[in-house]
Amino acid sequence: DGGITQSPKYLFRKEGQNVTLSCEQNLNHDAMYWYRQDPGQGLRLIYYSQIVNDFQKGDIAEGYSVSREKKESFPLTVTSAQKNPTAFYLCASSRLAGGGAGELFFGEGSRLTVL
Amino acid sequence: AQSVTQLGSHVSVSEGALVLLRCNYSSSVPPYLFWYVQYPNQGLQLLLKYTTGATLVKGINGFEAEFKKSETSFHLTKPSAHMSDAAEYFCAVTDSGGGADGLTFGKGTHLIIQP
Known about the structure:
The complex is a heterodimer. By secondary structure, chain A is mostly beta strands. Chain A has strands at 4-7, 10-13, 19-25, 31-38, 42-51, 54-57, 64-66, 76-78, 87-94, 105-106, 110-114. In chain A, the strands form 2 sheets. In chain A, strands 2, 4, 5, 6, 9, 10 and 11 form a 7-stranded mixed beta sheet that branches. Chain A has a 4-stranded antiparallel beta sheet with strand order 1-3-8-7, with no helix packed on it. The termini of chain A are far apart. Chain B has strands spanning 3-7, 10-14, 19-26, 31-38, 44-50, 56-58, 64-68, 73-78, 87-95, 104-105, 109-114. Chains A and B meet through β4, β5, β9 and β10 of A and β4, β5 and β9 of B.
């Protein structure tokens, strides 16, 4: 079945450590996105990518980094510079043209807790 | 810039009663509008979407929404609530160009179903 796979589902990190969240899609979508979800805050865009080897900052990119070396993969690194990294992280993908453009398909999320 | 306002962070209804979740949007161009549902510790699942054409949109699980341009609204309704409808609901908007830079989400409404 086509979809988006995020790993790990749960992750614990000590302060000062970088962690990388994995996101893989087999939907052949061009665009991929990372959102952060906090209680009562909705979803906020961290980074997005419309094509391999290119990505743009979203609304809350500080303290995060991404790469897009393959169409299928868009990993997110939460760096030690992120002041409040404990959150639920959601990866999504979408087509860029044709029917269904704009609709996001989401993974199951990764919950990061900083100890 | 686009924005979404969801009225009521929590809505409680009795099982069998009408469900009404409110969403108002702001967009300088014709919008694409979406409703997503999220169950605890899971990703988001699309309920329904409006792009063009008929303003009354039907989705999964008996939900529907009506796009009202004059009111800049896209309220979500269901005639009869079921216990399984208890979840978090998000309204989202993008511009009619397809939203390559992702969707803008409201802060969410937690739907509580009382037996």
